[in-house]
Amino acid sequence: MPQALTATAFMGLDSGLSRGMSPVRTVPAESAAVSASESPDRRRSAWMAAAQAGDRRAYEKLLADSVALIRTVARRQGVAPDHVDDVVQETLITVHRVRQTYDPTRSYDAWLGAIAARRAIDSLRSRGRRDSRELHDEFALDNHPDRDDASAATESEQRAQRLHEAIAELPPGQREAVEQLGLRERSLSEAAELTGRNSGALKVNLHRALKALRERFHGEP
Amino acid sequence: MENPDVTSDPRSHEALIDRLGTELVPVRRLLPPWLRTAGWLLLVAALAAGLLMHYGAEPMLRRWSATPDLAWAGMGAVITAISAAWAAFALAVPGRRVAWAWLPLPGALLWIGASGLGCLRTWIAPGTEVAGLHQTADCLTFIIAFSIPLSALLIVLLRRACPLRPVLAAVLIGLASAAASASLLEICHAFDSASTDLLTHALAVAVVVAVNAAMGGRLLGKA
Questions:
Q1: Which spans are transmembrane here (chain B) (predicted)?
Q2: Does the predicted interface ipTM exceed a cut of 0.85?
Q3: pLDDT in tens, B21-32
Q4: Where in chain B are the domains?
């Protein structure tokens, strides 16, 4: 469970810290209006206790207050700036769903931190999966440039342009094979039916086309 | 999530917070982990009481006095069941220390260690009755038959909480319910521990832990 272990270090530290902060303390639901002299953690804890009892105002103040904390945790986990807000939203939704698990005698920040860290790891993992899947597919990479990054988009557009030019210059049989099998993602039998060529010839042409394209792009940056 | 223009806008957090605020209803706070553990153990105790009424405590005590290491193994299984369940309930609350996962270790060591000693019985005291293949199969059926409802109840209880590490939670559930059913088996075990017996226990525990862990991703996953 390597992913669990990465989360472990932070959460252990976090709850370890928070344990020292507030040992035992019961917060009645009515005390949502807390004096400013209290620590932020205790204030949030009181808000959550009130929210568990159904106090909407305390709940909204608490969630708004939590956004910055979640951002900090997400950044510490290594979430890219573009995706921090996704983690914030996912964490807020989780907080809403599991708010009955919060025990007001304990630190709110540690509770929130653990949830945020988990959602941050989920985000990193799902992006990791998506990236590794796309890297295997040159066409997908060209067709779906990273929308978050303008320079990356331009670069991949240029790359796609060069690739299209290179495909256009291929001999007709090879070009046909690349277009049908690669770009339009048709199956061998579909492509064979459409082009009137047998599937063996299509395969050979695709193979030659890819070889030619590789040779052409080899050495280019 | 696909559109970064929407999510990176701080106002969208406000919109979400507003929506969550309108959905807010009072919730009943979860009981502390030790109380929830006690609730689950109550069911195990009820099963034990049922089995004791049926079989009586006498054969178990007689077997234990004849082979003290079996008594230790039984004790270890009971401790493992309690501590693994407690650890699972504690870890299902966000912000609790992961070190809770080590809680069942001493009990499990006692359980496995003492049953391991039982293996040597075949050489130390060859006279004792050793489990045949048929009895071994019964053992396995018993453990798995009891583990499934015990695991199911643990899963239902843990889903009310928020197990942030579903696989770890599943392993603890498997360990707790397998240890609990092995403890129950002690009551109606007709023969002494032997290597086949230990192997059966190990296999049953592995099956329960593996099934729980495999299903854990979905059963406990999106908490």
A1: 38-57, 69-93, 100-124, 140-158, 167-187, 199-220
A2: no
A3: 888 989 898 899
A4: 33-219
Determine the pLDDT at residue B80.
Answer: 93
Is the minimum CB–CB distance between B62 and chain A shorter than 8 Å?
Answer: no
User: Is any Cβ of chain A less than 8 angstroms from the Cβ of B32?
Assistant: yes
* pLDDT exceeds 90 at position B81: yes
> Any idea of the CA torsion for A78, A82, A87, A89, to the nearest 10 degrees?
160
Q: B130: helix, coil or strand?
A: strand
Q: Kindly report the CATH number assigned to the domain that includes residue A183.
A: 1.10.10.10
A53 CB within 8 Å of a chain B CB:
yes
The rounded radius of gyration (Å) of the Cα atoms in chain A is 27
Whether A125 and A17 map to the same domain: the answer is: yes
Closest residue in A to B158 (Cα–Cα): A101
Q: A216 or B128, which is more confident?
A: A216
Q: Is A200 exposed, middle or buried (0-12, 13-18, 19+ CB in 10 A)?
A: exposed
d(CA A193, CA A200): 12
Asked if A110 and A19 sit in the same domain, the reply is yes
Q: Residue A159 is part of which domain span? A: 138-217
Kindly report, residue by residue over A25-60, the tens digit of the pLDDT.
444 444 444 455 578 888 999 999 999 998 999 999
Residue A65's CATH number? 1.10.1740.10
Flag if B26 and A114 touch (Cβ within 8 Å).
no
Find the range with the poorest average confidence among A14-23, A96-105, B151-160, B173-182: A14-23
